[in-house]
Amino acid sequence: MYNFVSFAGIFILMAFAWLLSSNRKVINWRVIIWGTALQLVLALFIFHVPAGSKTFLFINDAVVRVLDSATAGVRFLFGRLALAPGTKNEMGEESLGFILAFQALPTIVFFASLMGLLYYIGVMPWLIKIFSRTFTKLMKISGAEALSVSSNIFVGVEANMTVLPYLGRMTRSEFCTILAAGMSTTASSVLALYVFILQKTFPTIAGHLVSASILSAIAAIVMSKLIMPETEEPETRGLEIMPYCQKESSVMEAIINNANEGVKMIAGIIALLLAFLGIVALADFLIGGVGIQLNNLTGLHMDWTLKGLLGYLCYPFVLVIGVPLSDAFEISKLIGERAVLTEVKSYQDLSVLLSSGALHDSRSAVLAAYALNGFAHFASLAIFVGGTAALAPKRSRDISAVGFRALMAATLACLMTAAVAGAFFTGESILLGR
């Protein structure tokens, strides 16, 4: 039954996006049909075709092994503080528990350097061109937006550097698409952080996050073209273009430069968490005082935290994507929390729910992992709009104007990704764990 609900939810979410459309009469249905079909075929391959499941598990194991390598430098620098919960070092010292700053965040530096190395030797540009060619040929979107969306599967805000020569001449619809793709996918360097947080309670999380990032990139195209359809003529419509790349002079320079970028990313994540956790705590204090009085007056027992209120708002969408009723409110609070506290905090709370046994159905954890995968929150809206506008300063007004629509498209894209996964996932799936 829940698989059917998820399948129906795909089209309900698209209908909701259509209602929000800036122009419902000019939607390119080729993009919508091919985008939806690509997601369904990919999910079918992953969840039900033996070769797809084996590929998924291979990717999961590869990411986990690379992550194990990433922790070598962390353990050398931070010693006992870097030990994951339940582990010991060579001297028999036990872990002090989970410490985000010393165990998970430093892995970003390693993965950023690894991506820099893969870019230098040509692996990443080759993968990006494969996805870009597929999107351009099948959906007939512009080559520039296809290339940017494809880059976002592997990297973050810097993905728009690959289309720098075309950025200043993009249409508003193209800007909406590339911003939505940036906010609905996960950079590979940050993916390592989520894997570290969830691996113990969700052994195959790495594979799910990789597949979610690919599915979300396609979903972002679909949702953005529904919310802001193309009304102009893109310069690169239907054309394949090569990634613009400023290649480092050596392997060492590529590793060093990207390691430094990883450090900047960690600083940004820490700053956002410090600021937003404090602001939300203050908001909860103020809202909670009013809420207690309202509960006393009405006899209701509502959750008057910001997370709880956003959870009520997200609740219908969580039901639509096929989360079991017994877990729906808990998952809706995680998705609502992501909007203000970033996905890092939401994944941490998902890990707590799993370790405490608070979720009644394994399906809920899988759908939550897909729905939370991405940067669809207010903090990233400023980062992506600001970062893109810095690359095309003459178009900053157009980029800013489509920013909120792009955030809505990204949020719906993440939910659509969860619905697609939910349409094919079963409780007996080998992709749940070992």
Walk me through this protein's architecture:
This protein is mainly α and 434 residues long. It has one domain. Helices cover 71% and strands 0% of the residues. It has 18 helices and no strands. The longest helix is centred in the middle third of the chain and has 48 residues. The two termini are 25 Å apart.
Please sum up the structure shown.
The protein has 434 residues and is an all-alpha fold. The protein has helices at residues 2-19, 29-48, 50-78, 100-103, 107-120, 123-139, 143-152, 164-167, 172-184, 188-198, 205-227, 251-298, 306-320, 328-356, 362-372, 378-391, 396-401, 403-424.
How many strand segments?
Answer: 0
SSE succession: HHHHHHHHHHHHHHHHHH
**Biggest pleated-sheet summary:** none
Percentage beta strand: under 5%
Unreliable segments (pLDDT under 50, ≥5 consecutive)? none
Number of domain units: 1
Oligomer: single chain
Annotation field: number of helices: 18
Q: Kindly state the percentage of residues in helix.
A: over 70%
Structural class: mainly alpha
**What integer value in Å does the Rg equal?**
21 Å
